[in-house]
Specification:
Elements: E1 10-12, H1 13-26, H2 31-43, E2 45-47, E3 62-67, E4 73-79, E5 90-92, H3 96-101, E6 109-113, E7 119-128
Parallel strand pairs: 1-2, 4-5
Antiparallel strand pairs: 3-4, 3-7, 6-7
Length: 137
């Protein structure tokens, strides 16, 4: 199966440091996921929050995506780990889907490895921006 190239990633500069610190802190617990997040951050284009495109997924954004193999659509809100609640649809940026979605824009198509080890192709259908997330903590 040919690997599809990763779509461009755009991250708000105000959240970049915190995302990097989270990934580094997670290195001992989940090195593969932490490394994947650091790789995405390293290749990301960073912009000040005020210049971020409205359809770029950031912390607090509601992201609707479709699993191309099943046709199933799902919406999650990207959250900091302490604010995550999967039952409420808030996915931590430190989960496989959080790492996959952060920084993507509407229309992006990408491969994603599930926790069960399956590779799926997902398409971002919509990004609903939220109020600016605070970079604190």
């Amino acid at each position: 199966m040919a690997k599809t190239s990763r779509p461009p990633v755009i991250i708000a500069s105000e959240t970049l440091d915190r995302l990097e610190r989270l990934a580094e802190a997670a290195m001992a617990r989940n090195p593969e996921l932490a490394d994947r997040l650091l790789t995405e951050l390293a290749r990301a284009r960073t912009l000040p929050q005020a210049r971020m495109p409205e359809d770029a997924a950031g912390i607090g954004s509601a992201v609707t995506f479709r699993d191309e193999s099943t046709g199933r659509e799902q919406t999650v809100v990207l959250a900091w780990p302490e604010d995550a609640d999967i039952a409420a649809g808030r996915a931590s940026v430190l989960t496989p889907i959080g790492v996959a979605l952060i920084g993507l824009r509407t229309g992006a198509r990408f491969t994603w490895d599930t926790r069960a080890g399956e590779t799926r192709e997902l398409t971002v259908l919509a990004v609903d921006p939220a109020a600016p997330a605070s970079p604190a903590a």
